[in-house]
Every structure is written in structure tokens, then in C-alpha cells.
Amino acid sequence: MLKRVNAIETQELRKEYRGRAVVDSLTLTVPPGEVFGFLGPNGAGKSTTVKMLLGLVHPTGGRLQVLGGSPHDPAVRARLGFLPEQFRFQTWMTAEEFLRFHGRLAGLKAADLNARIPRILETVGLGGRGSETLGGYSKGMLQRAGLAGAILARPQLVFLDEPTSALDPIGRVEVREIIEQLRGEGTAVFLNSHLLSEVEQVCDRVAFVKQGRVLQQGSMRELMGGVLPLDVRVDHLPPGLLDTLSRLGELRHTDTNTPGRADVELWLDHEDAIPAVASAVHASGARLYALTPRRPDLETLFLDLIEDTPDSRARTARQGAARA
Ligand SMILES: Nc1ncnc2c1ncn2[C@@H]1O[C@H](COP(=O)(O)OP(=O)(O)OP(=O)(O)O)[C@@H](O)[C@H]1O
Hints:
The protein is of the alpha/beta class. It folds into 2 domains: 8-218, P-loop containing nucleotide triphosphate hydrolases (Rossmann fold), CATH 3.40.50; 225-323, 2-Layer Sandwich (Alpha-Beta Plaits), CATH 3.30.70.1710. Helix content is 37%, strand content 26%. The protein has helices at residues 46-53, 74-77, 95-105, 110-123, 139-151, 169-184, 196-202, 220-224, 241-248, 274-284, 298-306, 310-323; strands at 8-17, 20-30, 35-39, 61-66, 80-83, 157-161, 188-192, 205-210, 213-219, 228-234, 250-255, 262-268, 288-293. Strands 5-6-7-3-8-9 form a 6-stranded mixed sheet, sandwiched between helices. Strands 11-12-10-13 form a 4-stranded antiparallel sheet, with helices on both faces. A hairpin with a 2-residue loop joins strand 8 (205-210) and strand 9. It is elongated and about 75 Å long. The N and C termini lie far apart (50 Å). Bound molecules: adenosine-5'-triphosphate. Residues 17, 22, 40, 42-48 line the site of adenosine-5'-triphosphate.
């Protein structure tokens, strides 16, 4: 049996531009068949990382391997797929010609391409449109064509840089299904995306990056675990209630703007504290209208990590409350 090598391995990977590190001490492992989300604000170094992993940009330091080898090795390259964020295609080609061209570069035979191109066009939602020139395609259709090109040669590792930026909601769901299908076939996917809800739904693990450094990485379960936001709605806040609640958990947000109603967001360490919250409300004399535990979503975690300032915390809490 063939040894299953990691799709991506980096150690202390670094890239400097004019003496400034834009990727710094990046150590990552992506096993085969994993969908890995790479998240960070604009300028965090995500595209530079992808370019290093594809052999398009030379690292200043550190080590990297993709599919057990160097991205400069043609045998490795033939097993990589890439959908860049800024895609530009040959407008005079039809989608079929474009895919044939890509397929031949990846070493696919004519018979294989003849069978595969119509199927892949169907997969990305361009069935029956393959004979039209790319110049007449909409932005979303071009992104779909680019995705078809990235997965045509059955790569073992695909880099998708903001793969749904031009797509409508249906297109986004379709791309998610394609990513899930790739995972099912054992293909690893390295996904750069700003759409956190998308990442949340599809990724096995994620890394948060800022200014070239990984702030946190782990499985969705690991990142989501540990805290339990609890939304508490009461008719009013008697004196002392907030103090009592703040001893049971971290008081994240209080909203008393609506007459006859007060909303409190409390972050608990464990659900065992929920009955104590109910008792504290009852003992204070307030009437309890809702006690809703909620898992923190990726956006809340992301904003917390990326901008760990009092302002961002307040905003995070407000957004959390708005979503609840
Ligand atoms: N060729 C280059 N020369 C100089 N600086 C560069 C070059 N390429 C990228 N940078 C800088 O490196 C930093 C990281 O850029 P990068 O494109 O990797 O970020 P990103 O996380 O992909 O951002 P975005 O989400 O906006 O696409 C930025 O400050 C950028 O200006």
C-alpha cells in the first residue's frame, strides 16, 4: 500500500518583503483529504502563503513540502489544483478549450479529457455552456470555469482562494458540495475565505492568521469549545443582578434600550452554571423570559482574535446579540 503523505507541511516558513515579514514562523500540517481553512484579515499573508506553497514565491526562510515533495517538482505540480483569487482567463477560448488546455498541461490524455470535461462542467453548474467563449461569461460563470480547471485533473491538493467571491447564494452552496465531494475522494483542500460561515460549514480545521503569524489553529470543535455564550432576557435589571451574574461568567454585553426588557450576554465556562443563572435571576426578583445557550460562531471567535481591543469586544458582543 502507498504511504499517505501529508498534503502540506511547513516549518517556520517565512517571507520578507523589504525586510518586513509578511509571513512569519508559519508551521502547518494538513493531512491528506482534509479541508483546511486559512483565515485572516486583508494583508495577513494568506495569498503569499499559498504562492509559496505553489512554488510561485520563494520563501525567505523555513521549510515546506506539498504532497511530500517540492512544488517545483513537475510530478508534484501535476497533482496540485489552484483557483486564484484574481482569475483572468483567455477570453477568446471556449470553456471546453480552456479546460482541454489545462488538462493537457496536467498530462491528461485526449480520451480522458473527452469523457471528463462535460462531467466537470456539469459539476460546476456550467453543463451545456462549454461551447461558449469565456469572453461572454459572467464573473460567477468565470469563477465556476476556474474551479473546473482547478479540479479537472483529479488533484490531491487544491488551493481555493476566495472561491465563491463572485457567486450567488446557490453557487456558494454548490461550491460547498464540490468541496465535500473532493474531501470524499481523498483530496485535500486549502481554503482561503472571508466568508466565515462558509468556512465553518465545510472545514475540518482552521488557522487564524494576522500579520503573517498564526494566532490559533485547530479543529472546529477545539476552537468552538471551552466557552458557552448564554443569552439571558429579563423584564428589568434589579440592583445587584449584574454583579451576581458576573461572578458566574464573563459579562459580555448588556442591552437595556427596550422598555420592559433587558438582554444580557454572559459567557460561561460550562453549562453546569446555567441553573445558577436561573436561580440568581429568580432571587433578584426579575422575571425571566429567556435563557438561551448558544455556541460561539467562527465570526465571533475571529473578531475576538483578530482585534483584541475593548472596541472590538463590544462590537463582537453586539453582533453576537444581534444574531441570537
Ligand atoms: N510582491 C510583493 N511586494 C511587496 N509586498 C508584498 C508583495 N506581495 C504581498 N506583499 C505584502 O504582503 C502582505 C501580505 O499580502 P497577502 O496578499 O499575502 O495578504 P492576504 O492575507 O492574502 O490579503 P487579502 O485578504 O487582502 O487578499 C501585504 O502587506 C502586502 O502588501
